[in-house]
Design a protein that fits this description.
Nuclear Transport Factor 2, Chain: A; 5 helices; 23% helix; 33% strand; globular
Length: 158
């Protein structure tokens, strides 16, 4: 059995795996964890399928596909959740991800908005701050910590 990349301490087959296979995530946090696991596994179909609104419009499969081979995902920590339960219609999840890209360690903290659409949770948008693990913000020519594969100045540094 393989541990789930989301850090839940459960096996992937009984954690994020069923959501990747088509079962709807029951909460916003479960969707967040499963999306992180999808990034780790390179499952772009799932990442795209679970986007809506601004996130769906901003989804760029080509950029994400280019960034996956040069990104090593190192961990996810859930910091806080607000609403996002089985009976809610929206919710937010604040989390931190750690990853290595271009030989540098990064940490990104994001507050993401989720909404339940037709009974299924979807990622709508997120606001984040990122910095190199050294505590410095990424430089203009560093890879963007969002994982897009673009330089910071052409992505979130614009």
């Amino acid at each position: 059995m393989i541990a789930c990349p989301c850090g839940s301490g459960r096996f992937e087959i009984s954690c994020c795996g069923p959501y990747h296979g088509g079962k709807p995530a029951p909460t916003a946090e479960a969707l967040m964890r499963s999306r992180y696991s999808a990034f780790v596994r390179g499952n772009l179909d799932y990442i795209e399928r679970t986007c809506a609104g601004d996130a769906a419009r901003a989804f760029d499969r080509q950029d994400l596909a280019a960034s996956l081979p040069v990104t090593e995902w190192l961990g996810l920590s859930i910091e806080a959740t607000e609403r996002g339960g089985a009976e809610d219609h929206d919710g937010t999840v604040r989390f931190t991800v750690r990853f290595r890209q271009g030989g540098r360690l990064f940490e990104q903290t994001e507050t993401s908005l989720f909404a339940k659409i037709d009974g299924e949770w979807r990622y709508m948008r997120g606001e984040f701050s990122a910095q190199a693990a050294s505590g410095k913000a990424p430089g203009r020519n560093d890879p963007c910590p969002c994982g897009s594969g673009k330089k910071f100045k052409k992505c979130h540094g614009a």
